[in-house]
Amino acid sequence: MHDLRPIRENPQAFDAALARRGLAPLSAEILAADSASRALQTRAQEQLARRNEASKAIGAAKAKKDEAAAAALMAEVAALKEELPALEAAQAEAAAALEAMLAAIPNLPAADVPEGAGEEDNAEHSRWGTPRPAEGARDHVDLGAPLGLDFESAQKVSGARFAYLRGPLARLNRALGQFMLDTHTTRFGYQEVAPPVMVRDEALYGTAQLPKFAEDLFRTNDGRWLIPTAEVSLTNLVRESILAEAELPLRFTALTPCFRSEAGAAGKDTRGLIRQHQFDKVELVSITTPEQSDAEHERMTAAAEHILQSLELPYRRMLLCTGDMGFSARKTFDLEVWLPGQAKYREISSCSNCGDFQARRMAARFRPTGDQKGTRFAHTLNGSGLAVGRTLVAVIENWQNADGSVTVPPPLRPYMGGLETLEPTR
Questions:
Q1: Which end of the chain is less crowded, N or C, counting CB atoms within 10 A of the terminal residue's CB?
Q2: Is 350 among the catalytic positions?
Q3: Domain check: are 260 and 136 in the same one?
Q4: Is 260 a catalytic residue?
Q5: Binning pLDDT at 50, 70 and 90, where does residue 247 land?
Q6: Residue 19: HSE in the Cβ half-sphere, 13 Å Cα cutoff
């Protein structure tokens, strides 16, 4: 959600920021709607004030036995009582239209975000590790089938974009999630949360998946939604709250199943685990002050990078351009892991600073230390720490052996009962 005040004060700057997002100017339309809403509000307040004033005057007129004046005032009050509900309804409708207009506009990019139309314009920030040669490498689908990766059974049960993981491969998937959680809680100070995976409209509106991206979600028959990411549940922990500045930053992490319809992904990544309707992900969320949010963004991204480095998975950090950022982000770093079976880097984590964009939608504020009356909107950040299924893909492809077995990375072996290698069963 956007703050109207800076749009009123500098509409040209707002339109310039939208242009960086590839959008047409909107300030004139917003200000016209704002003006109409405020004019109706002013008119309603004036009518209410006049009604109250006339009501008091009736008593004074009767005390003076001026029945004609009293009758005229009573007629005026009656007319105002009849007019006010329609005027208030019109004002409420205008305010709702303005809010809907603002809710449909993406966050404005930070000054250091590069301009661009799509992923080809993203800027490489850094690289870590030496990519395994693609020559001779097999992809995770071919490697995974003898290890317990079963798409055929899932197709019969659930349809496309689902998978069964069986035996040691299922345990490796579980080990990855547990390792990530343990690392983020013990090393980086995130509080582990077991959140709901079904939420109401308000929660998805708060994190900006609704109303624009409803087609990407799954809805239950009682009106709830399955979360596309634990960002929704975790960030909404502070909705409609006023936090003390001393409490911040708050850092939350969760391992949950996530559900996405992939409505806009027809024909993309139809092979393998890269793009599924259901997948596990460890999410990181931070709630902080505006002054801390840039440093917190770096810290969060480093926490996700630490998982990749611990598992010895080569990756690169990308700064997303204005045309490739998510709707609610003002700045995003993507981590792309090397997949030798595909001979390319693929996204495995996306860490975003949303500024106060989500906090305004959720009414999430904090009270600065020493200020007894004033409040400010918090800044919210979210990131994958990591997507478990894609990390499983990366481990299978980067730790594969010529005989079709997969070496278990050393940090995962304690979670695997000491198992060092996944051997093909067929």
A1: C
A2: yes
A3: yes
A4: yes
A5: very high
A6: 8
